[in-house]
What we know:
This protein is of the alpha+beta class and 98 residues long. 28% of the residues lie in helices and 38% in strands. It has 2 helices and 5 strands, in the order αβαββββ. It has a 5-stranded antiparallel β-sheet with strand order 1-2-3-4-5, with helices on one face. It is globular, with a radius of gyration of 18 Å. About 22% of the residues have low confidence.
Amino acid sequence: MKSFALSIACAISLIAGCGSSSHDHPGHSGYEQISLDRAPDAVRDAVRRDYPKAQVRHVGREFYDKEGTAHFHVMLTTADGKRQSVEYDESGERIGAH
Length: 98
């Protein structure tokens, strides 16, 4: 019985830990999943320019209160089958790749 209770406690801890992410930092005010069509033209153009044959799997918009800006996280599969995560600012400037 004790091992069952311990297993349940561990499972709850793991699930609760999954709710936090690397996006949890000061100045961050929210994150929402969007379609690439809802991203600014500059972001769409940058993704198409940087990854012309990629398949976009996920686009997220992350808001920042302090700067009053948004960053766009794009998860895609490149033409050669590699999965990649790239971040752009509102003007389509590439911030980073993961």
